[in-house]
Design a protein that fits this description.
415 residues, alpha/beta, 16 helices
Length: 415
């Protein structure tokens, strides 16, 4: 009897539609069917993205990579970079193949200029319908051929109210000697130079070489005065520790830091900030373009875009996220607030890029240090004095020898 009951129970279970027992946590049957039918099973998609730039399954957020793999049957090889320059060097260096990259605006311009990006087939990216038109056909991709917008943000000045008495409103506090050893500064040239350029009233995209030299000298002065620590993603742990007074970083990241240290605050310095755009692209080294476009499309599924925005706290160009009043970012000032004197980065001429790189190396190494300059002047002066003395000695000796020779000639004449 028990065996018969067990058999009937098993048959009943098998007759129940699977959809009743396996309702998906995130996606509709239509979405599941779409990704299943792409035919990506067994393929690989190599994604090269910024650190901490995708929801990873922690703190109850979606594991975006894991969900894409589950829906498509593809494998994602996911690696990180710290700066646009780092990413560019890896691409031009060869030896690695990426299907999806996430550069910023000015780097996208450069990659397009150097024929390093493939045009996208937007038929494979139907979720473009969710992108706010405000973020399409922008300066870095005016014909909307190569990119799908991913995130928008700006630079901010983050400060520790436990160590800073007065609320700052200027980048100039990063040169205040009372905060020596307490300043965290961008460890990438473009963002660091932009701060000095803002203080000097320069265009962030100036092609005047002397402007870049002047900005570098100001950064060298900062190194002399406060000896900043140059960081990128390390800024999180260091600023959250409460040991540092100031940090330069990005607005969305401030929201993550303040969760772990309530003493932190931020401001948009009055001299101006950089507003930037990051976007998905497919580089020419891509080996799986279909998989790349599928991954880009997946990242703009409303459920994925929402969790990703919540996880990284950056503004999403996805309308379903922007209009969602349940979003923790909805109306958040550091994300949607008006920016003072905002500027964007553009691709620079090669001579300026090379000059920028050289000057940045000199700033960080201390070669442009004011104290080094003064020491060099002292050395040059001492060398000049010593050299002058040597010249005088040589001249005197020549005169003496000439005089002796003349006296010897007269002696020989009378003899």
């Amino acid at each position: 009897m028990k065996k018969l009951f067990a058999l009937l129970l098993t048959l009943a279970f098998l007759l129940v539609p699977l959809s009743v027992n396996a309702e998906d946590k995130y996606f509709s049957d239509e979405q599941i069917e779409y990704y299943k039918n792409l035919g990506l099973q067994g393929t690989s998609v190599n994604v090269y993205n910024w650190g901490d730039y995708i929801s990873d399954g922690s703190e109850d957020y979606m594991d975006a990579v894991g969900e894409f793999e589950r829906l498509t049957g593809a494998t994602v090889n996911y690696t990180n970079f710290e700066s646009n320059e780092n990413m560019y060097s890896k691409l031009v260096g060869g030896g690695a193949s990426y299907d999806v990259i996430v550069p910023s605006d000015y780097m996208i311009e450069r990659l397009i200029d150097e024929d390093m990006l493939l045009k996208l087939d937007y038929n494979n990216i139907p979720n473009m319908k969710y992108i706010d038109p405000e973020f399409l056909n922008l300066f870095y991709d005016p014909d909307q051929l190569y990119t799908v917008p991913f995130n928008i943000n700006s630079t901010v000045l983050i400060y520790n109210t436990a160590l800073v008495d007065e609320e700052p409103d200027s980048w100039s506090v990063l040169w205040d000697e009372q905060y020596r050893g307490k300043v965290l500064m961008f460890n990438n040239s473009r963002d660091a130079f932009a701060i000095a350029q803002a203080l000097l009233g320069q265009d962030f995209n100036t092609t005047n070489e002397q402007d870049w030299v002047n900005a570098a000298q100001l950064l060298a002065e900062q190194k002399d005065k406060v000896n900043p620590v140059y960081v990128m993603d390390e800024v999180f742990n260091l600023m959250e520790s409460g040991e540092y007074a100031f940090a330069t970083y990005y607005g969305g990241d401030y929201l993550l830091m303040v969760e772990n240290n309530e003493d932190l605050a931020y401001c948009f310095p009055k001299e101006g900030v950089n507003r930037f755009y990051d976007a998905f692209c497919v580089p020419t080294c891509c080996q799986n373009k279909k998989g790349a476009e599928a991954f880009i499309n997946f990242m703009h599924e409303p459920e994925v875009a929402f969790d990703n925005a919540e996880f990284i706290s950056y503004r999403s160009p996805n309308i379903t996220v922007e209009e969602n009043e349940e979003s923790s970012l909805y109306g958040e000032e550091v994300i949607y607030g008006e920016l003072p004197n905002e500027q964007v980065f553009r691709n620079l001429p090669q001579n300026i890029i090379e000059l920028e790189n050289t000057l940045w190396t000199q700033v960080k190494s201390g070669k442009l240090s004011v104290s080094n300059h003064e020491q060099n002047v002292k050395i040059y002066t001492e060398c000049a004095v010593i050299g002058g003395a040597v010249v005088l000695v040589v001249i005197a000796k020549l005169i003496s020898n000439k005089k002796k020779s003349k006296e010897q000639d007269l002696t020989d004449l009378y003899d």
